[in-house]
Design goal:
With 471 residues, the protein is mainly α. It has nine helices and six strands, in the order H-H-H-H-H-E-E-H-E-H-E-H-E-E-H. It has a two-stranded antiparallel ribbon. A two-stranded parallel ribbon has the order 3-4. The relative contact order is 0.08.
Length: 471
């Protein structure tokens, strides 16, 4: 058992060492890839410096063009603002004229209402007068009253004609005011449409101005970042970079397009690691340390393998001794359970005792078959008992517990099983759980559980030698 535990611990140590060895190899591979990446990064930085020097002049020209466009847009903004103010003034004038026309129309409506009311009153008065005249005509007329009445009628007719003339003038004025109001409304609608158009144009100009401001800010930030990269990686200022010689390009290559392609490649590469050299130095030192540890681990692995080989050899020897002893006992007990029969234990691969399987052969007398699967249930039970007791005898124990192992046996085979039990009676204690009467008769002590009617269960113990004396 200790040898197996030592073997298991040695195997675990060996697996741990192999895992650490794989980790060290992986770390070494990453270090080598990191070294290659650092060299590629250095070359890329050199190319990037050339590209940045080339693109500085182009960005400066672009910035000047944007400033010119910004100045032009600011002038257009001033013109649009002046036009907007003029339109606002015209709108106020149209609104004022419209308000005056509305007030005039309201005044004319009031005057017309008053005149209509006066006309109605005069007509009522005229009907009353005509009625009175009719009444007076029926009565004897007074010449003085007739003269007075004619005078009143003349003045009333003159007043009525004046009112009619005034009403006609008011109607003409009302028509003219309506025409003025309609013209003012049309002018107001046109002014509103023009206002909407100018507002849309102004919003578009403001949006363009905001976009240009954002673009100018981006270009300024990119220019500052380029200057910082020049100072960090090339130790040069903007003037020095602009004064540097322009790198030579192969024929037919557009510098602007080439700069855009290189900028795209830079974005794909990701940010630069300024600590790559320091990390490489640390990784190289770690690689050296891990290499030393790897040598120690390989030496330890060789020692562990030697120990494992020695343990395997010892375990193999112990296994073969135990196998031979169990096989001898199996043949002995099989001959007891199967008189005239033969049984044996064989290894499926004798060349590898620690990896082989075990084949149990059982051939009762009068049968040619030796495979357990072709035997009856009782025969398989007896073969299993023979192997079990063979192991018991090879590795004895103070006591054994068997739970109804003889349940499938008939009387003849049961007697043979009890003969096998008698072989162990003098060297060990056997506790057998059984329902077989013959097994109970061969026991030294019986333990049982019983329950009387209406009572509780009780445990009983009976020694068989006392029963024999009583008999």
């Amino acid at each position: 058992l200790k040898a197996r535990e030592a073997e298991r611990a040695a195997l675990e140590d060996l697996e741990a060492l192999e895992a650490r060895l794989a980790g060290v190899a992986d770390a070494l591979d990453r270090i080598q890839r990191g070294q290659g990446a650092s060299e590629s990064e250095t070359a890329r930085l050199i190319d990037r410096r050339a590209v940045l020097l080339q693109g500085g002049e182009h960005r400066e020209r672009l910035l000047g063009q944007l400033r010119q466009r910004l100045s032009a847009l600011e002038g257009e903004e001033a013109e649009r603002q002046a036009l907007w103010e003029t339109l606002a003034k015209e709108r106020e004038g149209v609104q004022k004229r419209r308000d005056e026309a509305r007030r005039g129309r309201e005044e004319a409506a009031e005057i017309l209402g008053g005149i209509v009311e006066r006309r109605r009153m005069i007509e009522l008065r005229l009907r009353a007068i005509r009625k009175e005249l009719a009444d007076l005509e029926e009565q004897p007329a007074d010449p003085l009253e007739l003269v007075e009445l004619r005078d009143i009628e003349t003045r009333a007719r003159a007043t009525l004609d004046a009112v009619r003339i005034h009403i006609e003038a008011l109607r003409v004025r009302q028509i003219r005011l309506r025409e003025v109001a309609g013209e003012a409304g049309r002018e107001l609608e046109a002014a509103r449409a023009r206002e909407a158009h100018l507002r849309a144009t102004l919003d578009e100009a403001k949006q363009n101005l905001a976009n240009l401001a954002v673009e100018e800010t981006e270009i300024r930030l990119r220019l500052e970042r380029v200057c910082e990269d020049l100072a960090r990686f090339s130790d040069a200022t903007e003037r020095q970079a602009m004064a540097a010689d322009r790198p030579e390009l192969s024929g037919g290559v557009d510098p602007t397009r080439r700069a855009d392609e290189l900028a795209l490649e830079l974005e794909k590469m990701g940010p630069i690691n300024p600590l790559a050299a320091e990390e490489y130095s640390n990784l190289d030192e770690r690689h050296t340390h891990i290499s030393d540890q790897l040598g120690d681990l390989e030496a330890s692995r060789d020692e562990v393998r030697k120990v494992v080989a020695a343990l395997d050899q010892e375990i193999e020897g112990l296994f073969m001794v135990a196998f031979a002893e169990v096989g001898k006992n199996y043949q002995e007990f099989f001959s007891i359970l199967f008189p005239g029969g033969s049984g044996a234990l064989e290894l499926t691969d004798p060349s590898k005792p620690l990896e082989t399987g075990l084949e149990i052969k059982a051939q009762p007398m009068g049968k040619k078959v030796s495979r357990l699967s072709l035997l009856s249930g009782g025969e398989r039970s007896l073969a299993a008992l023979a192997f079990l007791f063979a192991v018991f005898k090879a590795r004895p124990s103070p006591f054994y517990i068997l739970d109804e192992v003889e349940a499938a046996l008939d009387d003849a085979n049961l007697r043979r099983f009890l003969r096998l039990v008698d072989e162990f009676r003098g060297s060990a204690q056997l506790l057998i759980v059984t329902h077989q009467q013959q097994t109970m008769e061969s026991a030294d002590v019986l333990y049982g559980v019983t329950m009387e009617p209406g009572g509780s269960s009780q445990a009983l113990t009976k020694r068989m030698d006392e029963v024999k004396l009583e008999v």
